[in-house]
Amino acid sequence: MSAKTANRVATIVIISVAVFIVALLAGLLGFILVRGIGHISFDFLTSAPQTIKAGGGIGPQLFNSLFLLVLTLIITVPLGVGAGIYMSEYAKPGRFTDFIRLIVEVLSSFPSIVVGLFGLLVIVNLFGLGFSLFSGALALTVFNLPLMVRITEQAIRGVPREQKEASLALGLSRWKTITSVMMPIALPTIITGTILASGRVFGEAAALLFTAGMTSPRLDFSNWNPLSPTSPLNPFRPAETLAVHIWKINSEGLAPDAAQIAAGASAVLVIVVLLFNFTARWFGRYMYKKLTASK
C-alpha cells in the first residue's frame, strides 16, 4: 500500500469513528429528550413528588442537585487547584511526589459504591454528620479532587516556559507569576476539568445513596434560615438528588406514572447538564479574554 493510499484509508477510518461517536451521542440525547420532554412542565419542575398517586414533580430533587453541586465545587475547586499548583510548581521531584501522584491515580479509579460505603462509615457515622448534603459533598469530593488536581497540574505545566521565565526575569515573584501569567493561560483547561467534575456531581447516585440519603424533608422555600431543618439552604439535612430520585422511582414503582416521571426527570437532568456545560464554557472564554486582554 502506497503512502497516499494509507493516508486516505487512515483519514476515512478516523472520520468514520468521529461520525460514529457524534451519532451515538446524538442518538442517546435524542432518545432521552424525545421520551421525556413531553412530561416537563412548570408544575413538574416546581412541585414535590407523589409516591402513591399520579402527578407530582421533581422540584425539591432538582434544587437538591443544584445545591449539592455548589457545595461540592466550593470544597473541590480550591483544594484541587491549590494541590495542582503545588504539584506543578512547588513540589520537588522525588519519591514523595511520585507517591502523591500514585495516590491521586488510585483515588480517581475507585468505584463509586466503595466511596459511598466509605462515606457511610466515616463521614456519616464516625464524624456524626448523618445523611446530609454536606456528607454527600464530601463523598463527591473524593471523586472529583483527583481529577481537579491532575487537570490543574497539566494545565500549569502546559504554559509556555518562555512566558514563565520572562515574568520571573522582570522581577515578579513566583506566586505573582502563577496568578498573573500562568493561571490566565491555564484557566480554560481548569474550567474544562471543573465541568467534568460537575457532570459527575449531577449524575452520581451510588455514593449519594449512602451519604446524602434517599429521602428529603418537606422543604419550606420561604424559610431561608440555614439552621432550620426545613430550610432549603440547610446543608446538614438529608436530601434526595435528581439522579437518586430517578433510580428510586424506577426501583420502587409505587407511583402509577413512575415511568413518565423517570423519563421527564432524565430529560431535565440532561438539559441541566448541557446548560451548565455551555454556560461554563462561555464563562471560561470570557474570563480568559478578560485576564489576558485578548479580543
From TrEMBL:
GO molecular function, one term: phosphate transmembrane transporter activity
InterPro entries: MetI-like (IPR000515), MetI-like_sf (IPR035906), Phosphate_PstA (IPR005672)
One GO biological process term: phosphate ion transmembrane transport
Domain ABC transmembrane type-1: 62-280
Bilayer-spanning residue ranges: 12-34, 66-87, 99-123, 129-147, 181-202, 258-280
GO cellular component assignments: plasma membrane
UniProt-annotated location(s): Cell membrane
Keywords for this protein: Cell membrane, Membrane, Transmembrane, Transmembrane helix, Transport
Major localisation: membrane
Record's bilayer topology term: Multi-pass membrane protein
SUPFAM superfamilies to which the protein is assigned, alphabetical: MetI-like
NCBIfam families assigned: 3a0107s02c (TIGR00974)
Family: Belongs to the binding-protein-dependent transport system permease family. CysTW subfamily.
Protein name: Phosphate transport system permease protein PstA
Gene: pstA
